[in-house]
Fold this protein.
Amino acid sequence: MQFRSPTSGLLSIEQMIRQIAAFLEEDPRAPHTIVIGTDSHTTSQSTTFVTAVVIHRVGKGARFYFRKLRQKPMFDLRHRIYKETELSLALVDVLNAEGMSALLSDWPLEIHIDIGQQGDTKALITEIKGWVTSVGYVARIKPESFGASAVADRFTS
């Protein structure tokens, strides 16, 4: 599994985890939040999903990494939102399996979902937030879901 960093380029998951740990160690007393969010963009040829991992040093900046996945077009909004959430939750499992479980247990982990009170996605709020919270994570929706609606969204096209 490969990730991109705006400053470091293409990284393996192990390299990304080492960079995240180093960033956390730079200021271990500062509050941090780990954010995972996915957004997507569909064209007639494909749907591109981008999952972002953001390490936010509250009030003092952040670092982020992302990965892209392309597949056949998904035109149904409900299915796309479910797939976005599935990709975010699956990445948490991968990070835990790759040795990041200690970091994830030390700092708050938020799953950012690209849905909100405005538009067609408001009908999905209860079920998607329920899914994320039922597996033990904090779910954030717009306007608080910057990991999906800003960071991941920036790289979907």
